[in-house]
Amino acid sequence: MKKYSLNALLILGGFFVVAIAHYELIDLYIQTVIMLMGINIILSTSLNLVNGYMGEFSCGHAGFMCVGAYVSSVISVLFFAKDRVFGAPLLDPALSVWLFPVVIGIGGLAAAFAGLLVALPSFRTRGDYLAIITIAANYMIISAIENMDSIGGPRGFQGMKRVINNMYDVSEIPWMMIWIVLGTFFSVWLLRRFVSSTYGKGVIAVCQDEVAAEIMSVNTNRMKLAAFMVSSGLAGVAGGLFAHVYGYVNPQSFNILKSTECLVMVYLGGMGSLSGSVLSAILFTLLIEALRFIIPEINMFAHYLGIVPDSYEIGQVWKWVIIPMVLILLMQFRPEGILGNRELSDVFPRLRKLYTFR
After folding, report:
1. Are 85 and 318 in contact (CB under 8 A)?
2. What are phi and psi of 256, to 5 degrees?
3. Model's pTM, two decimal places?
4. 174 and 38 in contact (C-beta within 8 Å)?
């Protein structure tokens, strides 16, 4: 019996989801949830490369996401949409269908360059010190963008929906669903190939013992540099996709709370587990969406029992209390996460057949 590779099965599954969306068998809300799952998978798996496989402690992942979101959004609007600030598009709007991956890729490269700037001073730091550097970088990026009036400053930047509408004018298919599905598969494939390669083993060696890795001729500085750039570059890809899904981007969308979401997903899935990060991103997205419906019910029930005064409203802001609480409980009762440092194929050995190429 012919065996298919995991990559082929994932691609077939992705096109199945896109076909369902195209024929409107699922509504727009569910499509949006699926797209957010893909974006969260990219964020979770990319951060796991630094925090899990390399054993560092980065807390400013949303800053790199912000760089990718703004760079790709500005380029997208500049080249493919008419804007009151940038004027007429520089290229034919119909080309946005074919050049959109290039735009997202440029945003990823810009985020990777930002990761390079953060990695350089981190060569002699580890643990808490690296966390401080990345948090500072997160705030520096947000503050810098808020002071750029040409791209909206604190008001945010918009116009990406016009680019997506140009794609629909070419063909009425769910373009953003397609790009996110392909981007998610590419990110997981790239990270899997990286960590399983001979070069990527150096990242794991840094995690085990940096001094011993240097003695065994591993260039630890180069390993840190490569891991930071790949991780931040993929975060920039996620940011670009995120901005085009909503058609609007604001600097405060990428503050420390967004970085906390990334940390929750990484530690929920397990440090050094790629499949664990995928599972945690899916579960986390479902939790966030469930809270949209659960919190109003809690508010009504609390008022019914008289637990809270009538003048107080339990709103959606409480999810920012629940999310950090999930991280605290996770560190207390399940510090290794769902899968620890194992993959799904280690828990279910029969899944290893999916990795066979014939």
Report:
1. no
2. -65, -25
3. 0.89
4. no
pLDDT band at 250 (very low <50, low <70, confident <90, very high): very high
Q: Express each pLDDT in 86-134 by its tens digit.
A: 778 888 888 888 899 999 999 999 999 999 998 888 766 666 788 888 9
Structure tokens at 21: 């969306």
Closest CA to 264 of 246, 288, 233: 288
- 81 by Cβ neighbours in 10 Å (0-12 / 13-18 / 19+) ranks as buried
DSSP letter (8 states) at residue 277: H
223, 228, 231, 237: CA torsion to nearest 10 = -130
Q: Rounded to the nearest 5°, which phi and psi values hold at 235?
A: -65, -35
| CA distance from start to end of the chain | 10
Annotate 296-321 with b (16+ C-beta within 10 A) or e (fewer): eeebeeeeeeeeeeeeeebeeeebee
User: Comparing C-alpha atoms, which of 200, 246, 255, 245 is closest to residue 61?
Assistant: 255
